[in-house]
């Protein structure tokens, strides 16, 4: 179904696996003969289904690494920019980061079809209008935002009870609720551009609970048990957790804890651009509050795991924000993790 074509190309047999038909759960006789009958919606996920998914993932990763090897040899470039829906494959991106010859990476947060709007605007601005290249995509918060007054009006219209708190009271309370096993709906600032929830429209919860993934998937997200959740952590913790500095503002890589950039010993594998610290001050401070709370409650345990707060893309309940001093802000980033 998928084969390499020369040194820098690949071929997909669309007669055997037609993407458009597959989206409607229609498969060719050749695909059924090779892989077995398609799984029915009510059918349990078996080892065969898991093996097919794992094999497809591995073939994708190996093929992309093969293509990038040829691309690097052709161009001699050290910088890599990826786009398209496949660029959301976080496990693949993790391997690219640790196994390819490229030293710097950029994948914009709306790499799928929605990102065509950004490409069209850039094309007109730079190519047709001849404007200089000045824009650097340092964050994804370009969606709609709502004031505290608008949130309060929406809550009142829905006849829901709410309480307004300054950050000095709100953040410790949020940290306490998370540490006690609760799930927080976090709503702040402007909505993220792209499919990832990056701290402005998120569920956050305590990863120390072994059942938290199942709880979020089954009772909150209403989806399959195996669907992954992603942690948020303080940027300062990345080297201790991953073994090297790493920055992923758009939640687009999977890295093993303690993993190092094997192909590039000693290199700094993170991106150099940095969003303004004041874009997520309340969220970052909530991380700090939670970290302080769990450290105080159990200093004997591995403190690194306490930096992790599960995140799952969602629209969450409104909250009231107040200005927070820059001194309290600490950069927080998101990684995707497979449990």
Keywords:
single chain; 339 residues; alpha+beta; five-stranded antiparallel β-sheet; two-stranded antiparallel sheet; 10 helices; 9 strands; disordered C terminus
Verbal overview:
It is a single chain. This protein is of the alpha+beta class. 35% of the residues lie in helices and 11% in strands. The protein has helices at residues 19-22, 29-35, 47-75, 90-99, 116-128, 148-157, 167-179, 212-220, 238-242, 281-297; strands at 2-4, 10-12, 79-82, 104-107, 184-187, 201-205, 230-234, 309-313, 332-334. Helix 4 links the parallel strand 3 and strand 4 (104-107). Residues 260-277 and 295-339 have low confidence and may be disordered.
Mean pLDDT: 77
N/C terminus separation: 29 Å
Spatial arrangement of strands, main beta sheet: 5-6-8-7-9
Radius of gyration: 22 Å
What is the makeup of the main sheet?
5 strands, antiparallel
Our count of helices gives 10
Order of helices and strands: EEHHHEHEHHHEEHEHHEE
Number of DSSP E strands: 9
What fraction strand?
Answer: 5-15%
Q: Uncertain runs with pLDDT below 50, 5 residues or more?
A: 260-277, 295-339
Shape: globular
* DSSP helix fraction: 25-40%
Classification by helices and strands = alpha+beta
In summary, what is this structure?
The chain has 339 residues and is α+β, with helices and mostly antiparallel strands.
SSE topology sketch:
Elements: E1 2-4, E2 10-12, H1 19-22, H2 29-35, H3 47-75, E3 79-82, H4 90-99, E4 104-107, H5 116-128, H6 148-157, H7 167-179, E5 184-187, E6 201-205, H8 212-220, E7 230-234, H9 238-242, H10 281-297, E8 309-313, E9 332-334
Parallel strand pairs: 3-4
Antiparallel strand pairs: 1-2, 5-6, 6-8, 7-8, 7-9
Helix pairs in contact: 3-4, 7-10
């Amino acid at each position: 179904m998928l084969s390499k074509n020369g040194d820098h190309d690949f071929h997909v047999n669309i007669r055997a696996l037609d993407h458009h038909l597959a989206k409607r759960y229609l498969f060719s006789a050749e695909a059924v003969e090779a892989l077995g009958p398609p799984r029915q919606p009510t059918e349990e996920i078996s080892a065969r289904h898991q093996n097919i998914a794992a094999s497809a993932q591995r073939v994708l990763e190996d093929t992309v690494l093969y293509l990038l090897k040829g691309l690097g040899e052709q161009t001699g470039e050290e910088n890599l920019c990826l786009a398209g829906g496949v660029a959301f494959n976080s496990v693949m991106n993790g391997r690219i980061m640790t196994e390819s010859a490229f030293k710097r990476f950029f994948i914009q947060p709306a790499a799928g079809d929605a990102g065509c709007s950004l490409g069209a605007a850039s094309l007109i601005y730079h190519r047709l209008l001849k404007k200089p290249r000045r824009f650097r995509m340092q964050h994804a918060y370009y969606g709609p935002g709502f004031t505290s007054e608008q949130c309060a009006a929406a809550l009142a219209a829905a006849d829901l009870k709410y309480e307004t708190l300054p950050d000095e009271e709100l953040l410790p309370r949020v940290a306490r609720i998370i540490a006690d096993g609760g799930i927080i709906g976090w709503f702040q600032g402007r909505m993220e551009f792209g499919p990832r929830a990056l701290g402005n429209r998120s569920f956050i919860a305590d990863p120390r609970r072994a059942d938290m993934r199942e709880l979020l998937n089954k009772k909150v997200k209403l989806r399959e048990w195996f669907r992954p959740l992603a942690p948020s952590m303080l940027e300062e913790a990345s080297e201790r957790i991953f073994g090297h500095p790493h920055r992923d503002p758009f939640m687009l890589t999977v890295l093993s804890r303690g993993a190092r950039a094997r192909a590039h010993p000693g290199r700094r594998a993170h991106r150099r651009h940095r969003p303004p610290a004041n874009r997520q001050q309340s969220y970052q401070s909530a991380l700090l509050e939670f970290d302080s709370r769990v450290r105080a409650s159990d200093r004997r345990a591995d403190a690194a795991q306490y930096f992790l707060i599960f995140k799952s893309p969602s629209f969450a309940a409104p909250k009231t924000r107040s200005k927070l001093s820059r001194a309290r802000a600490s950069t927080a980033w998101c990684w995707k993790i497979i449990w």
